[in-house]
Amino acid sequence: MIMFSGVNIMNKMLLSNLWKYLRTGYSIYLSTPISMFNFLTLTYYLILSKLNISLIVLSSFRYFLVIGILFLIPIAIYLGWLHFRKMGIHGFESILLATSNPLHCYTSFVTMENNLKIMKELNIEPSNDWWLLFNYWKKHNNKWGWNP
Fold this sequence. Notes:
Helices cover 79% and strands 3% of the residues. By secondary structure, the protein is mainly alpha-helical. It has a two-stranded antiparallel sheet.
């Protein structure tokens, strides 16, 4: 048993890990299907069932659920693809996360420096976007002034 100031560190780490696993499991694996089912249920029972439309898709909640899932999943995948690939939001989030801690800035800069060395050995010319990112990390690394 590891004790520090009268507190069992192993128990504290176990509780911290369990809390992290709970947040990850719920936010990634449980909340998405639950919220999708909730959205479809509310849409069907509060809106569509009141309209008295006699389409086969809307005649039963089961049919509506299957059709709704078949449409919602591709739409959600497309929106996720836009988030990561086209809108630049993910890159911005990554930069915010990295600049919040000097260690992230330093490791990103060192990685970029090593990539530059490898690219020079392979006679690969970095793109303008690559140089912009390299200079960004270089500026932030110099700003923090942290070199181990």
